[in-house]
Write a structure and sequence with these properties.
Layout lengths: L23 H7 L3 E8 L2 E8 L8 E4 L2 H7 L22 H8 L7 H11 L4 H22 L4 E5 L9 H8 L4 E6 L2 H7 L9 E5 L5 H5 L2 H4 L9 E5 L7 H14 L5 E7 L6 H11 L10 H6 L5 E2 L5 E2 L18 E7 L10 H5 L2
Parallel strand pairs: 4-5, 4-7, 5-6, 7-8
Antiparallel strand pairs: 1-2, 2-3, 8-11, 9-11, 10-11
Helix pairs in contact: 3-4, 4-11, 5-6
């Protein structure tokens, strides 16, 4: 495992618990594979555990609750998380860690690298398309922020990468508020590290297949006002659920958005993608996720009733690129678009999703 940088001494405080429950010394004795410490930054206290071995996960856990730290690391009372949270394991490939690996991230295990490399061996363009998707999200959030939107829901956020959504949005308005939602405990533990940047960021455990639970989450509702415009981000996640589930997810979030809200959406498409690649991805992910390739027409139907921003639904690399780019290798496509919900939007418009099949 790579060396981890030492944290700033000014943020370190004595490593003992101030609340009922195990002390940090007790946790260290029970979990010798982790470095565990406490930090105090202003009036904020957080507990951090970091794996000292690549084959022991999760890599990093950041939380303000020592009982939650115990639960995530497998020692102590379980927290009331959604039943649909994925188990933490280093034994098999993980969708978020594989994607992070493709875009240059370092939080991955050998199983993730082997699975990701098995795809790249015959389809090296997958890494380029993944990076293009990440760049699309950055440009799309900047575009939405320029329209004055200050609230963001990043659904299926994945492992954090810089710049994060809140960092991009705050370039336009420092008061921007962001909720990161995921059902992967590894992703959640990493995303909680974003809370150290200050208020107006929350991390919400949730499965996008249960949009009602996400939208009704007290943690989300204390930060996000759904009666005001919000930007919902569904970036490269809908192809990991069935077609019916994807349709229901998009319909639920669009319905919940106030007029003036934006949808940022990207999804892998079967149109122009080598069928062998779809089979290879399905095999690589093993039981971690399904892979559902939707046609370009089906993805376009997600935006029924919305005002799609120019240039419309395109390959993610072609959506308002910052610089001119060469045409990427063929055989792997992710499509993306940004759309605004008009005041005249009718819930019936979402029926276009079903008609496009």
């Amino acid at each position: 495992m790579e060396d981890t940088p030492e944290e700033t001494p000014t943020s370190h405080m004595p490593a003992e618990s101030d609340q009922d429950g195990p002390s940090l010394d007790e946790l260290r004795a029970q979990l010798p594979g982790f470095r565990i410490w406490r930090e105090i930054i202003g009036d904020r206290v957080r507990y951090i555990a970091r794996s000292m071995h690549r084959d022991i996960g999760p890599h990093t856990v950041v939380t303000a609750d020592i009982d939650e730290l115990c639960a995530v690391l497998g020692d102590g009372p379980e927290q009331p998380e959604p039943a649909s949270l994925q188990p933490v394991t280093a034994g098999g490939p993980n969708v978020a860690r594989m994607y992070s690996y493709w875009i240059g991230g370092k939080d991955n295990f050998e199983a993730d690298r082997l699975a990701a490399d098995s795809v790249l061996a015959d389809f090296p363009q997958v890494a380029e398309v993944a990076r293009s998707n990440r760049e699309f999200v950055i440009r799309a959030v900047r575009h939405v922020a320029a329209h004055g939107v200050t609230q963001y829901l990043d659904i299926g956020t994945g492992l954090p990468s810089s710049p994060a959504v809140h960092e991009i949005a705050r370039q336009a308005d420092p008061a921007s508020r962001v909720a990161y939602i995921d059902n992967d405990p590894v992703v959640l533990s990493h995303a909680r590290a974003l809370l150290a940047t200050g208020p107006r960021v929350v991390v919400v455990p949730g499965d996008m297949r249960q949009p009602g639970a996400i939208l009704g989450s007290p943690k989300l509702r204390t930060l996000i006002d759904l009666d005001e415009p919000v930007c919902v981000i569904l970036a490269s996640v809908l192809h990991f659920v069935t077609a019916a589930e994807a349709d229901a997810i998009v319909t639920a979030f669009i319905t919940a958005m106030a007029p003036g809200s934006f949808l940022v959406l990207s999804a892998g498409t079967s149109t122009g993608t080598d069928p062998v690649l779809i089979d290879r991805l399905t095999a690589a992910y093993q039981d971690a996720a399904a892979v559902t390739g939707r046609t370009e027409a089906e993805i376009a139907a997600y935006f029924s009733g919305l005002q799609v921003e120019p240039p419309g639904l395109t390959d993610v690399w072609a959506w308002r690129p910052d610089v001119r780019r060469r045409w990427p290798p063929s055989g792997a496509r992710i499509l993306g678009a940004v759309a605004r919900k008009p005041a005249s939007f009718a819930a019936a418009a979402s029926s276009g999703i079903r008609r496009a099949r």
